[in-house]
Amino acid sequence: MLEKSAEQQAFADDPRLKLVERAMKRLQYQPDALIEVLHTAQEAYGYLSRELLAHVAARLRLPESQVFGVATFYHFFTLRPKGEHSCIVCTGTACYVKGAGEIVRQLEQTCGIHAGQTTPDGKLSLGTARCLGNCSLAPMMTLDNTVHGPETPGGALEKLQRLLEVSDEQS
Amino acid sequence: MNRAELAELAEVVATRRQERRLRLLVCCGSPCMAAGAEAVVAVLQDKLGAVGNPAELELAKTGCQGPCSRGPLLTVQRSGKPDRIYQKTTPALALAILEAELQQTLLPDEDCLPVDYPFFARQTRLVLANSGRIDPESIEQYIGYGGYDALAQVLHDMSPDEACDSVVTSGLRGRGGGGYPTGLKWQLVRKGSGDKKYLVANGDEGDPGAYMDRSLMESDPHRILEGMAIAGYAIGAEQGYIYVRGEYPIAAQRLQKAIRDAERTGVLGSRVLDSNFSFRIDIRIGAGAFVCGEETALLASIMGRRGQPRPRPPYPAQAGLWGCPTLINNVETFANIPAIFSIGPPAFSAIGNGKSRGTKVFALCGEVVNNGLIEVPMGMTLREIVFEIGGGLANGAAFKAAQTGGPSGGCIPAEKLDTPVDYENLQALGSIMGSGGLIVMGEQSCMVDVARFFMEFCLDESCGKCVPCRTGTVEIFRLLSRICNGSAVPRDLDNLERLCRMVKDTSLCGLGAAAPNPVLSTLRWFRHEYEAHILERRCPADVCSMNVLPLHLLADRLLHRITAGRQDGEGF
Q1: N or C: which terminus of chain A has fewer CB atoms within 10 Å of its end residue's CB?
Q2: Minimal CA–CA distance to B256: which of B236, B292, B284, B275?
Q3: Per-residue pLDDT tens for B154-181?
Q4: What is the pTM of this model?
Q5: Which of A73, A96, A122 finishes a domain?
Q6: In chain B, which residues have their Cβ closer than 8 Å to the Cβ of A35?
Q7: Predicted ipTM?
Q8: Interface of B with A in 324-383 (CB under 8 A)
């Protein structure tokens, strides 16, 4: 047997991997439970690395291509690390009709990234969602899972900047 | 627990509830939470703690109470007096209400909605009967309002065939959008071959601008479980799944707790209510794919695969999960089931219009005064919904269109406001009932832009399996974008219509087949807006920028510049 490289060792020793292993064991390593396993993995790691996907594939006795296919099919799974904070602007119909587009444009311009991207310093992920089901608050957005709305472009920007400032002060 | 014990518990809980002098129900749906419901709860809890938590006073955190844009909502129930509903409740107001009651003085009137407020008075609440009245995390409170009684009745007094027949008699049709008669579907699955059958509740509410299912799952999870258990008994399934949208973590948590509580109480699990029927329910969390609302895609997703649809037949009723007969209904359809058995199929069938029986829950949103969740009898006119329940448009703006059915539906113009809202009438107008999103648009919305918005949604959500949907939606989106930026030529309008028809006729599943609906319906009712964009290069609602020139105008302008330059004696 070949010696494990330092990287492989670090991957195997990661406590987050234990959570994923436990989930797979609970689901009896059934290939049908792939989506549940990926949910657990993403919750533990924040994103799904290629290495992790390969590991899950081997454990569930699935082709790597199928695991990769499922992970890329669903919007919920991300293959890149997310920023420390998240700002998601809802662009569902009610929010769109009430001007969510302008909020997205304003935030994109100020943050210098497009929706769906993360700032180079890894502080913020900016995203849009198809509908977060809070249509009576339209246009609405979430900052680190807290719901805010109804928003204006200016107000949204102010709230986002406050969030980032607070986190700067803490660090 | 058996049937007698269930009835006894219901009685105990109901009596305890009626004996309370004061019940304070704070809406803890997410819109109210965002508006500050938590602070209201905290201040009331402190005050109750300070006076020693007297038993005759109760504070409960409920699910959605309805008029979400007026949150945080507080319902005050006093024994022997009509309920009072306060809007935009501040902690100070909540405290004033509690103190007034403690000192036996009159309750404050400010921010109290009138008793006959049309928003409440015009609704018929069957599915939402408990929403906003009970703590969704308490199975006792659900039982106290007659919960699981319908299940007990079906298990002890009816054969599975009789249960199916009752649903047929009720005239209930699928609430997820298709409108297929629910009872017939149950009978099909019941007759399906094989001993193992499955049942799936579709809670993957993907339509943008719709949140009925989220609200139902969060506000009254036991009602869905009860409906599923009755269906399980009727079709002969012992295992059910609820597929919850990944964006709804609170709904998943509450359902999980509800399932645990129900199993512990003996109304789910093995030998339900001491009968020979066993039924288990598991939750599956969606991972964000609109196409999973399509039934065959949903099944693929439950089995851990990419959510891509497959051709039918075989229908899921014949070969669904792992090849077994599978019943798929929307969570709202299941939530109707307990109501059918508690009021009786004939009474249920007496509500409604034409072939659409019962009630429908709508998420009323957009430019309307009372945003929120409503339940109305089928056949109420759109005008009543928008102007009486909804209170008209904000700032007195003019009504332009109502959008129903999300990206698979269409826009209904002002001249059709008197249409009764039911499956057939909406279809005749080129829209669909859909899952129940109802978005009201005023004059500042551009219909071409709205059609483009939905097409962008569909092209993004197309799973890519069949060509008409995968490339057709992209081409339609390009054409619409050209109309919106001013570079379209008259021929584009014909191409657009032809392409829409083709995508509609040739797509594999409902997503593609319904994707052109928003375009076709706006073309039908708002063609003049398309023509203004193309022929006059003008957006009537002033939404589109129209800053790109069509090729023939570009050529004209270039020629003009060249000739002008020549006259100046310039070379080029």
Answers
A1: N
A2: B284
A3: 999 999 999 999 999 999 999 988 899 9
A4: 0.93
A5: A73
A6: 284-285, 287, 301, 304
A7: 0.90
A8: 363, 365-367, 371-372
